[in-house]
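Support case: user asked for a sample of complex input and structure output to validate their parser. Sending the pair below.
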Amino acid sequence: MKTDLECIPCIIRQCINTLNLTKCSESIKRKTINELLNDLEKIDYDLPPAYNSDIAYIISRKLTGVKDPYYKLKEESNKAALEIYPRLKEIVANSPDRLYAGIKIAVEGNIIDLGISKDGSSLLNFEKIIDDIKNMPFAADDYSKFRKSLGEAKNILYISDNAGELVFDRVFIKELIKQHKNVVLSVKSGPIINDATRKDAEEVGLDSLVKVVETGSDRIGVNFNCTSDEFLKEFRKADLIISKGQGNFETLDDVDANIFFILKAKCEKIARELGINYLDVAIVKRDPRWGSKKV
Amino acid sequence: MKTDLECIPCIIRQCINTLNLTKCSESIKRKTINELLNDLEKIDYDLPPAYNSDIAYIISRKLTGVKDPYYKLKEESNKAALEIYPRLKEIVANSPDRLYAGIKIAVEGNIIDLGISKDGSSLLNFEKIIDDIKNMPFAADDYSKFRKSLGEAKNILYISDNAGELVFDRVFIKELIKQHKNVVLSVKSGPIINDATRKDAEEVGLDSLVKVVETGSDRIGVNFNCTSDEFLKEFRKADLIISKGQGNFETLDDVDANIFFILKAKCEKIARELGINYLDVAIVKRDPRWGSKKV
């Protein structure tokens, strides 16, 4: 997906949110934003928004010296999500269609993304979560296609999004394993926003359940300019790829592979691209008309 | 009020919204945003956000050649609001406290601000308006202070905000006139966003009801660097000033005068300054602790 003008204010807002977490001085904040404004004048609109958003995090890291501003939030969100994990499992156990329930839980993990919330509150309201899952209206629902594709698949690459969300993914991944699939989970090689890293996969116990590979970088989504050989091998080997969240969608929508995107449209642009409304949730099979980039 | 970092993405978003209305080419849009990014590197954080937002509109005007991108929207919103004007009057007529009802209608006019809506839809949903007015929970309510101040006042300066909203103001202003007050209405001297100009005051029939003065410029809020002598005279003469909307609040909060701000907090910063929540509505007497600038 290409970058639009409307991504610019969003990239700056992301930078401000990150700076606020670093607790750096106002003077450093202003200096960082100035450098970002300067860099954004040279933005490449042909690149995915995720690539251009990286700039905000790289500059913030450089000028504040804080490598992982979301460290505490990630730990807290893993912990909070693990507390409700047994109850998430119960939802699946009590569902007539366990797989579909698993997907809904994975979507819910994306909905509660703590990286987007301004106050960084990590308290999960389980009643709201239950309500969300019960009444989840997929604005685009390729579940039947997914089910069919899953029936034919052996190797699944599960491209994760955030820490905390990973606990919700675990419920879904367990259902995939039950269907005798070989699931590989990918996480970031370093901290970026609140995206899951190997540490998070370990904290939520996914490393003992599936093979965990790193994307090869600390860049948002999947940046094929710096993917690890290991990731690339799994990407090519997979006959079904599950991609969580916006960053992965932005960077994978035009890649020739059998990908199902599971996400909430947290901005108007993503909603437009998916033909759904802002804040809608969806499970969508990649449309070959979006591109056919070979990797 | 001073500018915060968080105002920067908002200023850029305003510029993009305005560019979209001009129907200019993508290339001109990008050029405009680039010039804005460059200018924002030199932003003066000690100035009100409104002054810094002006930059977006000045650059957009310069590079697109479109002087009044909101022209059609303003005309449409005046027309749509006039259609429901008789029903707004009925609300007041049927209220036990006509003045309070008038204020609520004036607030509602600010709530439905068409300049903020992304699709520029000018269709007013009267049922929703009635609901809003009935259930209007002022997060800050200095109505009793306002009533007292009004009892002692002779000359009122009513500083308007948007076109369309002006019709709602007219209902309130009629109540002020009924109390034998001398009301002067201020409008912008030229087009900026969807702010009311003399043309709008005429279109909604306010010019035949009250004296209309121009602020002296086409700048957001009240910019004392370029106020007209006429405006300044009325500002100094007034023993009660009613200020509508955010732009006026941003530029008048620190000015030593008896001002009541009537607005909806359409951003987090304004909400913080007023001690209310984002999207709350309020009628607030100016607090001398906000400043004591003499004009």
